[in-house]
Write a structure and sequence with these properties.
The protein has twelve helices and nine strands. The chain has 295 residues and is of the alpha/beta class. The chain has a seven-stranded mixed beta sheet with strand order 4-3-2-5-6-9-7. Strands 1-8 form a two-stranded antiparallel sheet.
Length: 295
C-alpha cells in the first residue's frame, strides 16, 4: 500500500514538452525526487537518450520495487529508496526535475536550495503558494525572509500554470512548473553567506518600524541608504526591494564596527533558537495545510 500521499500527474504531455525544451544533456547528474511511477524519470531518460546519470528517489517500497523492475536494464538510472531528509545530495553540480510531494515541500526546498550546496538548476511541479514564499519579489512583488536569503544565489521563473484536472487527485490550489537557476555569479561570495544570514535575521526581528535598522546604522547612514538604494526605513522586510537589502548588507560590511557585529551575532543565536521552535510548528502546520489543499 502506498502511504505517502502525492498528486500524480495525468497530463503528461505538458510536462514532456517543457522537459524537451530544457537545457539538459547526458553529462548532467539529474535527480527526480518523489519519482513515483517513474513518469518524469522516463521523460528525462528520453531527453538524454538513455545516457547520463539519473537518480530516481522514492520512499514508498511498492513504488521503489516497480521502478527497479522498470529500470533494471537501464544502467544510467539508479533507483534510490530513501527519505529525502536523509538522502545525501551530490557534491558536484546536479539538477533536479520532479513533481515533489506536496506534504514535504518545505523540507525539499530547504534541502536543495542551500547556497553552500551544488544545485545548478531545478524544475519543480509544486504549489504556487510555496513558490511565492521562496521566490518572493521575483514572482509576487513582495519579499520574504526566505526569498531575501536566497536572492543572491538563485533566480526563479514560472514556466507553466497547471489546471486541477492535470492531476489525480485534483488539487484545490494553484499548481505551477517552477524553474530555479543558480546565478552564474552569486551576488555574495561564499565566505559571506553566514554573515549575510545573520544580518537579515537581525533586521527581520523588527516587523515594522526602524528599531533594528537604528541598532546597526547611524541616522546619517540610514538617510544616505534610503536615498541611494530606495531602502524603506521604518518598514519591515516584506516592503523592501531585494537589491535595497543587498546594498544595505554591503554598507553593513563596510561601516558597522566589529564589536557591533559580534553583538549582533550573539543576538542572532538567541533569535534562531526561539524561531526554530516556532518554525518547526509552523512548517508542520503549513505542509499539512498544503497537503490537505492539494487533496
Amino acid at each position: 500500500m502506498i502511504g505517502h500521499s502525492q498528486n500524480f500527474l495525468l497530463n503528461k504531455r505538458i510536462v514532456e514538452n517543457i522537459i524537451e525544451r530544457l537545457d539538459i544533456s547526458p553529462e548532467d547528474v539529474i535527480i527526480d525526487i518523489g519519482a513515483g511511477e517513474g513518469v518524469i524519470t522516463e521523460m528525462i531518460n528520453r531527453k538524454v537518450q538513455g545516457k547520463g546519470k539519473i537518480y530516481a528517489v522514492e520512499i514508498e517500497n511498492e513504488l521503489v520495487r516497480r521502478l527497479q523492475n522498470r529500470y533494471e536494464e537501464s544502467p544510467n538510472i539508479t533507483v534510490v529508496e530513501a527519505n529525502i531528509s536523509n538522502y545525501e545530495l551530490p557534491k558536484g553540480d546536479y539538477k533536479v526535475i520532479a513533481n515533489i510531494p506536496f506534504n514535504i515541500t518545505s523540507e525539499i526546498l530547504n534541502k536543495i536550495l542551500n547556497p553552500k550546496g551544488s544545485l545548478k538548476e531545478a524544475y519543480l511541479i509544486l504549489q504556487e503558494e510555496a513558490a511565492l514564499m521562496y521566490a518572493g519579489e521575483a514572482l509576487s512583488g513582495e519579499s520574504t525572509l526566505k526569498s531575501l536569503l536566497l536572492y543572491p544565489f538563485f533566480d526563479f521563473k514560472i514556466l507553466h500554470y497547471f489546471t486541477p484536472s492535470d492531476f489525480m487527485p485534483e488539487p484545490k490550489v494553484s499548481i505551477i512548473f517552477l524553474e530555479i537557476k543558480r546565478r552564474e555569479k552569486s551576488f555574495i561570495t561564499p565566505e559571506l553567506i553566514d554573515e549575510y544570514n545573520n544580518f537579515l535575521t537581525y533586521i527581520s526581528q523588527d516587523k515594522v518600524g526602524e528599531g533594528s535598522w537604528k541598532d546597526v546604522f547611524t541616522r546619517k547612514q540610514l538617510e544616505i541608504m534610503s536615498k541611494a538604494s530606495n531602502l524603506e526605513i521604518g518598514r519591515g522586510l516584506k516592503s523592501q526591494h531585494s537589491d535595497s537589502i543587498l546594498n544595505a548588507f554591503k554598507s553593513y560590511l563596510k561601516y558597522t564596527t566589529p564589536q557591533k557585529k559580534k553583538e549582533i551575532e550573539k543576538a542572532v543565536e538567541k533569535i534562531k533558537i526561539e524561531r526554530s521552535k516556532v518554525v518547526k510548528i509552523h512548517r508542520t502546520r503549513q505542509d499539512r495545510e498544503w497537503h490537505q489543499k492539494g487533496m
